[in-house]
């Protein structure tokens, strides 16, 4: 990531070059990559880039980006700062959702058992 870190700059990435850059908040994006001139993608204020050699993580991040996932601060919390943090959060959300779905399914089955057959 650029050494020009300041609170007034935000992370942008180039998936082609597997590089991250910090660009000023006030400037209009998207910015071109200094290396390949492809447009940089905004990843959210809490994003931390993986190493350039971590090809699988960059591929995963590109997929998440295309799905609309951004690394944002929410309600004062930092949220996911890395791909592994995000994976852990998504796994937890999936577990919570699955648990809720199983609970609803169990209630539905109980109601069906109580209903008299006609």
Describe the structure.
There is one protein chain. With 118 residues, the protein is α+β, with helices and mostly antiparallel strands. It has one domain (9-114). It has two helices and three strands. It has helices spanning 55-66, 83-114, and strands at residues 9-14, 19-24, 41-42. It has a three-stranded antiparallel beta sheet, with no helix packed on it. The chain is elongated and about 70 Å long.
Which percent band covers the strand fraction?
5-15%
The number of distinct helices, counting runs of at least 4 residues, comes to 2
Q: Could you give the distance between the termini?
A: 69 Å
Radius of gyration: 21 Å
Strand order of the largest sheet: 2-1-3
- Oligomeric state of shown chains: single chain
Low-confidence blocks of residues:
1-5
What is the count of distinct domains? 1
* H-E string: EEEHH
Q: What structural class do helix, strand and pairing data support?
A: alpha+beta
How is the topology of this model organized?
Elements: E1 9-14, E2 19-24, E3 41-42, H1 55-66, H2 83-114
Antiparallel strand pairs: 1-2, 1-3
Key terms:
single chain, elongated, 118 residues, three-stranded antiparallel sheet, 12% strand, alpha+beta, 2 helices
What's a concise summary of this model?
The protein has 118 residues and is of the alpha+beta class. Helix content is 37%, strand content 12%. It has a three-stranded antiparallel sheet with strand order 2-1-3, with no helix packed on it.
